[in-house]
Design a protein that fits this description.
Blueprint (H helix, E strand, L loop, with lengths): L6 E6 L2 E6 L10 H16 L5 E6 L4 E3 L4 H9 L5 H18 L5 E5 L2 E3 L1 H4 L6 E4 L4 E3 L13 H6 L5 H8 L5 H6 L5 E2 L5 H7 L5 H8 L8 H12 L4 H10 L3 H12 L2 H17 L2 H16 L2 H12 L17 H8 L15 H5 L1
Helix pairs in contact: 1-3, 2-15, 3-14, 6-13, 10-11, 11-12, 13-14, 13-16
Keywords: Hydrolase
Catalytic activity: 3-hydroxy-2-methylpropanoyl-CoA + H2O = 3-hydroxy-2-methylpropanoate + CoA + H(+)
InterPro entries: ClpP/crotonase-like_dom_sf, ECH_dom, HIBYL-CoA-H
Length: 358
């Protein structure tokens, strides 16, 4: 098999190895990479000699830090409605659905930083491996955006309100909490990854997993779940922040301050999207919702401002519009979720390999 400069593809024995190859950019996804991954996955599924698909990231820092948001900023600055970004998201969300439906074991090595779009190309896979170096997050509200790539579906299925907490705050989690929240399946020490990945070329996935997987380091969310569940069960984002502030828990009060620093529009839309994801059922329906929200975000001032503050100028002082949760009307939230008409993304219904096995 052949790939591209930004996606390395090789086969060895029973496995096909797909490596995201932009290490200096923390393997941030470009449209070219999404297309290359889609093509490579199709070839893997059609090749009778390939029994396992393995996704890794080049370099030592992580699998993937997400989509290339600098390119989104440039597209927005063009003043043309960001058509390149809209096309990128449509193909990215189709890829996320395809990964979930992959007919062969799809092993995602979620070592190091795995955020945003990196979660989309890994956490929908059938075998998801984390290490003590893993930092998994959907940090979109910090740039005026909403967790996409099916992230709301993943987080909606976490125990209690843990997923709501992670979606609204963008808090990164380590291996133990990733396992607790259903974002990963197995823990491996990082120093054993090389042997683990090599053995996938020789033996069935489950045999290799049993050989290498072990107990993960303890996380922190389980001991915080009581106040998280109580506060995030509130009906509105404003009430969530009030409960966090008044809870008496120092960590909860800090979380309230964290939420106040995020885009108010993004926080309120994220809360609505997450709760609606619990009712939508399939990943495809959630990805269709993601596309509606994403295109609406292109017309919202907060996305461009958030990227500017966090990535371009790096002053970490975004000027959100509107500036407070109380200033975001419910009509605005509803508009983000409303159908797109002829621009709607329609994905064929399918069942993930994970659901089929459960």
């Amino acid at each position: 098999m052949s790939g591209s400069e930004t996606l390395l593809v090789r086969t060895e024995g029973r496995a096909a190895y797909l490596t995201l190859n932009r290490p200096r950019a923390l393997n941030a996804l470009t449209h070219e990479m999404v297309r290359s991954l889609t093509d490579a996955l199709a070839r893997c599924e059609a090749d009778p000699d390939v029994e396992t698909v393995v996704l890794t990231g080049a370099g030592e820092r992580g699998l993937c830090a997400g989509g290339d948001i600098r390119s989104i900023h440039e597209d927005l600055r063009s003043g043309q409605g960001a058509p390149a970004t809209a096309a990128f998201w449509a193909d990215e969300y189709r890829l996320n659905a395809r990964i979930a439906r992959c007919a062969k074991p799809y092993v995602a090595v979620m070592d190091g930083i795995v955020m945003g779009g990196g979660v989309g190309v890994s956490a929908h896979g059938s075998v998801r491996v984390v290490t003590e170096r893993s930092r998994v997050a959907m940090p979109e509200t910090g740039i005026g955006f909403v967790p996409d790539v099916g992230g709301c579906r993943l987080l909606a299925r976490a125990p209690g309100e843990l997923g709501t907490h992670l979606a609204l705050t963008g808090t990164p989690v380590g291996a133990g909490d990733a396992l607790l929240c259903g974002l990963a399946d197995h823990f491996l020490p990082a120093d054993r990854l090389g042997d683990f990945v090599a053995d996938l070329s020789r033996d069935p996935v489950q045999d290799v997993v049993r050989r290498y997987a072990g107990g993960a380091p303890a996380g922190t969310l389980e001991e915080q779940q009581e106040w998280i569940d109580r506060c995030y069960a509130a009906p509105t984002a404003e009430e969530i922040v009030r409960r966090l502030t008044d809870s008496g828990e120092p960590a909860a009060k800090e979380t309230a301050e964290t939420l106040r620093a995020k885009s108010p529009t993004a926080v309120k839309v994220t809360l609505a999207a997450l709760r609606r994801a619990r009712e939508l059922g399939s990943l495809e329906r959630v990805l269709e919702q993601d596309y509606r929200i994403s295109l609406r975000a292109l017309a919202s001032p907060d996305l461009m401002e958030g990227i500017r503050a966090q990535v371009i100028d790096k002053d970490r002082s975004p000027r959100w519009s509107p500036p407070a949760l109380e200033d975001v009307p419910e009509e605005t939230v509803a508009r983000f979720l409303a159908p797109l008409g002829e621009r709607e993304l329609t994905l064929a219904a399918g069942h993930s390999t994970r659901e089929a096995a459960s």
